[in-house]
Design brief:
Largest interface: A-B, 53 and 53 residues
Strand content of chain B: 5-15%
Largest sheet of chain B: 2 strands, antiparallel
Mean pLDDT of chain A: 95
Distance between the termini of chain B: 27 Å
CATH architecture of chain A: Up-down Bundle
Shape of chain A: globular
Oligomer: heterodimer
Helix content of chain A: 40-55%
CATH superfamily of chain A: dinb family like domain
Order of helices and strands of chain A: HHHHEEHHE
Shape of chain B: globular
Low-confidence stretches of chain B: none
Structural class of chain A: mainly alpha
Number of domains of chain A: 1
Mean pLDDT of chain B: 94
Radius of gyration of chain A: 17 Å
Number of strands of chain B: 3
Low-confidence stretches of chain A: none
Structural class of chain B: mainly alpha
Strand content of chain A: 5-15%
Number of domains of chain B: 1
Distance between the termini of chain A: 27 Å
Chain lengths: 175, 162
């Protein structure tokens, strides 16, 4: 049985990749579009999603994904963002390589904590669930930006993902 | 025994919808009709849509009956239906015999699918539309509450800072 969290994280990665592909068809000016009430520009929001996901995974795995760790402000291009989506994809699979995540395992710290910054102890389910939630929230904002500016949006729900996976399909008429 | 991550996700989702609904109880009738380009619709209609969809997903597992809430429902009715959704989520996970990898035929949607799909969609759908309500509130200069998992985990005592 595939772990539910793994399914959700894979869906998140799939949705990021779809959105990135969509963004590759935008001009530089369009990538800088935003609307009030959202995180920022399309490009900045996409960078924020991916950099945050790396942060959640570093906390869950207890080790850096690469050196030096990514900073949101470093992700200035779509190619740069794509490279880090690949890091996220690989880390998600590594997280579940030995089976299901223990949701109650207490994570005492993160390797990304800066000197003097507060330390948080948390159950593993929290950063895992935040990974899933955070991406959905900000992809929704990008969708709003695209739609507000009359640009084509994508259906990034679980329904089309499940169709692509073969986990859902239209029922035959003669059933 | 560990709480299943699926249940954690769904509890967070219902908690977040409840918190946002609570926030919106202090809005005027006119404010509940505010919207923004690129979103589903008004704040009130989006709430009803979230809860109606939740009912639909849970109906797949037989823990919520039809009819589902109308999109014109009042905030009080939405809150009442959300309480029913909350109970149904707990009921779903109390019956430990659901195999989420099982393939079923869903006559209402005319699809064959694995049972994990509507639950993952439950979580995605609510977060997507709450984000839109957050955008509408902020766009109109109204305060939007923090609904992420950090806030939920703190409320649950699952995060401590030192």
């Amino acid at each position: 049985m595939t772990d539910f969290l793994l399914r959700q994280m894979r869906h998140g990665v799939w949705a990021n990749e779809k959105l990135l592909d969509r963004c590759r068809a935008l001009t530089d000016e369009q990538l800088e579009l935003t609307v009030p009430g959202t995180y920022g520009t399309i490009r900045k929001t996409l960078a924020h999603i991916v950099a945050s996901e790396e942060g959640y995974l570093v906390r869950l795995l207890g080790s850096l994904l690469h050196e030096p760790p990514v900073r949101e402000q470093d992700l200035a291009t779509l190619d740069g963002i794509a490279a880090h989506i690949a890091h996220v994809t690989s880390a998600v699979e590594r997280l579940f390589a030995k089976g299901s995540l223990d949701p109650d395992r207490v994570i005492a710290d993160t390797p990304l904590r800066r000197a003097g910054a507060p330390r948080f102890e948390m159950a593993a389910w929290a950063p895992a669930a935040q990974f899933v939630y955070h991406g959905i929230d900000h992809r929704s904002q990008i969708d709003t930006i695209l739609s507000t500016h009359g640009l084509e949006t994508l259906d990034l729900q679980v329904w089309p993902y499940a169709m692509e996976l073969g986990a859902s399909r239209e029922a035959k008429e003669d059933r | 025994m560990s709480t299943p991550p699926m249940l954690r996700q769904m509890r967070h989702d219902v908690w977040a919808t409840g918190k946002l609904l609570e926030r919106c109880r202090s809005l005027t009738t006119d404010q509940l009709q505010l919207t923004a380009p690129g979103t589903y619709g008004s704040i009130q209609k989006t709430f009803a849509h979230i809860v109606r969809a939740n009912e639909g997903y849970l109906n797949t597992y037989g823990v919520i009956p039809q009819p589902f809430i109308e999109l014109t429902a009042s905030v009080d009715e939405i809150a009442s239906r959300l309480a029913r959704v909350r109970d149904a989520v707990e009921q779903l996970f109390e019956s430990k015999d659901v195999d989420f990898d099982e393939k079923i035929h869903d006559e209402r949607r005319k699809v064959d699918m694995e049972l994990w799909v509507p639950l993952a969609q439950f979580s995605h759908h609510g977060s997507d539309h709450r984000s839109q309500i957050g955008t509408i509130l902020t766009l109109n200069g109204l305060e939007a509450p923090e609904l992420d998992v950090w806030a939920y985990a703190r409320a649950e005592g699952a995060i401590a800072d030192f």
